[in-house]
Amino acid sequence: MTTIPRSEPGVLTIPAFHDNYLWLVHDGKNAVAVDPGDAAAIAAALDAHSLELTAILTTHHHADHVGGVRELARQWDVPVYAPLHDAVAGATVRLAEGDRVVLDRPAIAFRVLDVPGHTRGHIAYVRETQGAHWVFCGDTLFAGGCGRLFEGTPEMMLASLGKLASLPDDTLVYCAHEYTLANLRFALAVEPGNAALQARYVQAEAMRAAGEPTVPSTVGLERATNPFLRCDSPEIRATLVREGRIGPQAGPVQVFAALREWKNTF
Ligand code: ZN
Ligand code: FE
Q1: 65: which residues sit within 8 A by CB, 6+ positions away?
Q2: What Rg, from alpha-carbon coordinates, does the chain have?
Q3: Which structural domain, as residue segments, surrounds residue 87?
Q4: Distance from the CA of 36 to the center of ligand 1, in angstroms?
Q5: Res. 6 pLDDT band, cuts 50 70 90
Q6: Backbone phi, then psi, for 57, in 5-degree steps?
Q7: Are residues 58 and 169 in the same domain?
Q8: Do residue 266 and residue 138 come from a single domain?
Q9: N or C, fewer C-beta in 10 Å, the chain?
């Protein structure tokens, strides 16, 4: 019996619209598109890298994540994976927590997490295959921040972020927007004494100045610097109390809700 060597899958970052990132997970020949909001951007990247589209994964129903699904699926006739509890036009496989996505080309498997809050049905894809740890988390966890609560409650979102934060520290976080600098400015306002956060801001500024994406980050970096994963930080709590946004007895959900509300107008 011979084993055909397969190359370790990689991820292509495809900027789209104003600040979105779309992704192609590929093996040099075949590619899976994640959150293809823009069919033309995906098609151009497939063409530029001579890749064949074999599947589409979507995290939630917003147009900047699924706008290109119909066009790409028509062109390539591929399965479209989508959340069970979000309506995505063109979906052929509906997924919820505990489900797995096992693909042949590229050879890669993901397990699905329910991460409601930004939308009711939002899901994340965690790479299961041996190799680097990855998570595609759409608009739930961002580099230095988190998504807005359009359809869910603070309780829901805090639980969803908790699931993502419990992934291994070296997990690469593929979030769908370049919001990092604005997020880190807010983080510095609520936790100015966090040395890891200060260092991250300097680094992120340099990356953006050089025209580089700040995404993916890692779960470890998010846990150390992202205020929405740090609702137990005494400094964050003290800032919110001083600002009159929570009482001294507030629990983690109230801390989270106060942070999210403040960020909405920051
Ligand atoms: Zn969204
Ligand atoms: Fe989005």
Answers
A1: 20, 35, 36, 37, 58, 59, 138, 139, 176
A2: 19
A3: 1-94
A4: 12
A5: low
A6: -115, 135
A7: no
A8: yes
A9: N
The residue type of 145 is: G
Contact predicate 122/116, CB 8 Å: yes
The CA distance from 169 to 222, in Å, is: 9
Alpha carbon 3 to its chain centroid, in Å, reads 34
Catalytic residues, by residue number, are 60, 62, 64-65, 118, 139, 177
- How many A from CA of 17 to the centre of ligand 2? 10
- Cβ–Cβ contacts within 10 Å for residue 197, how many? 21
Q: Look at residues 126, 142, 146, 162 and name the one whose alpha carbon lies nearest to residue 216.
A: 142
Question: Predicted confidence band at 68 (pLDDT cuts at 50, 70, 90)?
Answer: very high
Q: Are residues 119 and 85 in the same domain?
A: no
2, 75: one domain? yes
> Whole-angstrom Cα distance, residue 102 to residue 88?
20
Parallel, antiparallel or unpaired: strands 134-138 and 123-127: antiparallel
* Number of the ligand closest to the Cα of 19: 2
Residue 142, strand partner residues = 145
Going from the Cα of 60 to the center of ligand 1, the distance in angstroms, rounded, reads 7
Amino acid at 73: A
Cβ within 8 Å of residue 144, ≥6 positions away: 179, 180, 183, 184, 186, 187, 200, 204, 217, 222, 225, 226
**What digits encode the pLDDT tens for the residues 130-149?**
999 999 999 999 999 999 99
